[in-house]
Automatic annotation (TrEMBL):
Domain of life the protein comes from: Eukaryota
Tagged with keyword Disulfide bond: yes
Cited InterPro entries: RGM, RGM_C, RGM_N
Protein's name according to its UniProt entry: RGMB protein
One Gene Ontology cellular component: side of membrane
Membrane topology listed for this record: Lipid-anchor; GPI-anchor
């Protein structure tokens, strides 16, 4: 093979690891016999291992002619042997079998190196929707004002910023109309990629026009359009992270799942992260930790004249939300709250979609539903939540 014959020349490029890649490939294939039944299977495994190794060295070997010769040779041989680009690889050690741009592979490699079984990585969930309602990585539920631009996430790997604007004239109620996400450069897996969505502009591509980061074959970072202009997903395999963004009505929602160890990889100066620490107390609409809702089944004590923006009574808002959500959890209550506050039916769809995103991304099924309670956390299971009508009046009048 032409690209194998250049072994000696590789020594001139000490920073390039192509010599080691080629030597391993020769070692994997030297004992193979074309007459054997499993020759093609084993040869393809060796080629895939060779391909992974060259990709790992793509940056440091960029100006190396031997490297480029090897890459072309691998491609030709894979075509000749009908090898798939994905599948098992040959290996004499753990490093060769691990995809450097697959987060789950990183944890397996650490497990192998330590020689002991380690627990699987812990994943965390954060979501923002509606008026706006925030579910933090700690599963705490808050309703906030946060008008303007605010950071949801800001760590070593990822930055997410949202911009919230007023929903109802004369009210402090806000909703999200812009989302900016920065996937930071990471080894050979991806260059920095910036994504930006705005109301009526939910693109299925990054700002630079691309739909993926890094090598297109490895798909370490890519965007998938689910509903044209209304719903996209971003999958970042190299950091084990998934992001959902939707437009419902005039506003955007966001849901994200990310490994805990990466969520916590931030400097002390990056502590203002709504997904990590929640909204500042001065921005909370529910300052005591409780979403302000009346006892279900009774009408609001004021008439349409005292709350003209909504057009909903407690009874009609409850009925509307119950059409989408049968379980009276915090998402149901958020739906009722948003209808009473804004009168915008799209907030019903936003609450319902937010719950669907939780069910798709949250790792713990028993924590999908959050039920309000009167404790300090503002959340709990199997507990009732009642606020006096008089207190509700004072809260909503102050809010509106």
């Amino acid at each position: 093979l032409l690209f194998i014959s250049c072994l000696g020349d590789c020594k001139l490029h000490t920073s390039c690891g192509i010599q080691k890649c080629t030597t391993d490939f020769v070692s994997f294939t030297s004992h193979l016999n074309t007459a054997l039944e499993d020759f093609d299977l084993e040869f393809c495994k060796a080629l895939r291992a060779y391909s992974v190794c060259t990709y790992r060295n793509s940056k440091v070997c960029r100006g190396n002619l031997v490297y480029h010769s090897a890459v072309l040779g691998i491609s030709d041989l894979m075509t000749q042997r009908n090898c798939t680009k994905t599948g098992p690889t040959s290996s004499t050690n753990s490093e060769m079998t691990q995809d450097p741009c697959n987060y789950s592979g990183h944890t397996e490699a650490r497990e192998h190196q330590r020689g002991e079984k380690t627990p699987p990585p812990t994943y965390l969930f954060c979501g923002l929707f509606g008026d706006p309602h925030l579910r933090t990585f700690k599963d705490r539920f808050q309703t906030c004002k946060v008008e303007g631009a605010w950071p949801l996430i800001d760590n070593k790997y990822l930055s997410v910023q949202v911009t919230n604007v007023p929903v109802v004239p004369g009210s402090s109620a806000t909703a999200t109309n812009k989302i900016t996400i920065i996937f930071k450069s990471y080894q050979d897996c991806t260059d920095q990629k910036v994504y930006q969505a705005m109301t009526d502009d939910l693109p299925a591509a990054f700002v630079d026009g691309t739909t993926s980061g890094g090598d297109e074959n490895t798909r370490s970072l890519h965007i998938v359009e689910k509903v044209n202009g209304k719903y996209i997903e971003m999958h970042a395999r190299y950091i084990g992270t998934t992001v959902y963004i939707r437009q419902l009505g005039h506003y955007l929602t966001l849901a994200i799942r990310m490994p805990q160890e990466l969520v916590m990889a931030f400097e002390e100066s990056q502590d203002l992260q709504l997904c990590v620490n929640g909204c500042p107390s001065t921005e909370r609409i529910d300052p005591s930790g409780h979403l302000p809702l009346p006892v279900m089944g009774k009408l609001l004590p004021w008439g349409a004249a005292s709350h003209p923006q909504s057009g909903y009574t407690l009874e009609t808002a409850t009925t509307k939300c119950h059409e989408k959500m049968l379980v009276k959890d915090i998402y149901f209550y958020s739906c009722v709250f948003d209808l009473l506050t804004t009168g915008d039916d799209n907030f019903t769809a936003a609450a319902h979609s937010a719950l669907q995103d939780v069910e798709a991304l949250h790792p713990s099924k028993e924590r999908w539903h959050i039920f309000p309670r009167s404790g300090d956390d503002g959340v709990g299971r199997d507990s009732k939540f009642f606020v006096s009508l008089g207190l509700l009046c004072l809260i909503l009048v102050a809010y509106l």
